[in-house]
Amino acid sequence: KTLIKNTLMEHDVSFTMRTINNTLCDGNDINLFVTAWVGIYDIETGVLKFANAGHNPPIVKLSNKVSFLKEKSGIPLGIYEDVEYIEHSITLNKGDRILLYTDGVTEATAKNGELFGEDRLLEVLENYKKEDNEHLLEHIKEALDEFQVGTEQFDDITMLIFEYIGK
Q1: Could you please report the per-residue DSSP string of the chain?
Q2: What is the largest CA-CA distance in the chain?
Q3: How many CB atoms within 10 Å of residue 138?
Q4: Residue range 94-99: average pLDDT?
Q5: Mean pLDDT, the chain, integer
Q6: pTM to 2 decimals?
Q7: Of 77, 105, 135, 157, which is the most exposed, with the fewest CB atoms less than 10 Å away?
C-alpha cells in the first residue's frame, strides 16, 4: 500500500505498477505474489485511469447498465520482473459506480462445493442497482450468507463501492 501511494504521487498507473512489481520481485525467492487493482480518478474530468495486476475485475454501473470492467489484466505483482502493465481509462458520469471486491466474494462456497461466482454477483448487483451503496453492499453480503449456509467462510470478504456523485 505504501509503495503504491508513494509512487502514484509522481507517476502514472502503468509506471507505478511496473515499479511496485519490480520491487516485490527483488529477493522474492519463495515466489510470493499479490494481486492489485489501482486507479486514479480525476474529479474535474470524470476520467478514471486504472491498471489491473491479476485482481478480480471490478463491476461497473455506467448509465444504469451493470457489467464487468474486464480490460486486459497484467499478471500478479511479484512474479516476473519488468512486466508492462497497461493503463486503461473510462469516463464516469453522475451516478456511475464501481464495485471492487476480493476473491473471497466470488469464491464463497456452498455446502455442495459450488462457488458463488461472478454471474451470481452480477445478478445481485443488477437486481439492486437502484439501492444506495450501503444497502447494495448489505444485499451482496446477505446473498453470500444465504449461499454459504452451513459452511465456514474460508477467505476474507472485502467490498468497496466508489460512486461519482457529480460536481
Answers
A1: -HHHHHHHTTS-HHHHHHHHHHHHHTT-TT---B-EEEEEE-TTT-EEEEEEEBPPPPEEEETTEEEE--PPPBPPBTSSTTPPPPPEEEE--TT-EEEEE-HHHHT-B-TTS-B-HHHHHHHHHHHTTTS-HHHHHHHHHHHHHHHTTTS---S---EEEEE----
A2: 49
A3: 13
A4: 93
A5: 92
A6: 0.88
A7: 135
Per the DSSP assignment, residues forming a β-bridge with 160 are: 100
CA 95 to chain centroid? 19
Tell me the percentage of the chain whose pLDDT exceeds 90.
77
Mean pLDDT value across residues 33-59: 94
Q: In what order do the strands lie in the sheet with 65-68?
A: 65-68, 59-62, 97-101, 159-163
C-alpha cell at 43: 474529479
Residues of the chain with pLDDT > 70: what percent?
99
- Could you give phi then psi for residue 63, rounded to 5 degrees? 50, 45
Confidence of residue 41 (pLDDT cuts 50, 70, 90): very high
**Which amino acid makes up residue 2?**
T
